[in-house]
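Late entry, evening session. Most of the bench is empty. Finally got around to the prediction I had been postponing all week. Sequence below, unchanged from the version circulated by S.P.
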Amino acid sequence: MQIEKLDHLVLTVRDIEATCAFYAKVFGMQIVTFADNRRALSFGEHKINLHERGKEIAPNALRPTPGSADICLITRTPLSDVILIARHHGVEVLDGPVARTGATGPLASVYFRDPDGNLIEVSNYAGNRSGVPTEGER
């Protein structure tokens, strides 16, 4: 077997509405409602399904816990603009821009937390436009 790509992942959250508002406002994701009034966040060819803590959809993770995820999202938006957008919405920048290594090469990344405390990394591949030295250049 060879896996081709990731279709979706699930976040367990305390408050689905707060999570939807955060990801829609800050990251421009689309809020999707599907089967049995379930909610998800859609972007590109991907989606993040949302489970409310204590009301998880079976089957689910063995220990579904809000705030346990660490996700890297790729954007073509310059990281300086990503930082301005986040700050405009009252989101603290935890770190960055910093050099990292992604699935297909060097990244420049900035880090935030969502309402549940999940670590959200937003990154650029595009020629590392942020001016941050790549790990090999340090």
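Two things to note before I forget:
The first helix runs from residue 16 to 27.
Helices lie at 16-27, 79-88.
Will write this up properly tomorrow.
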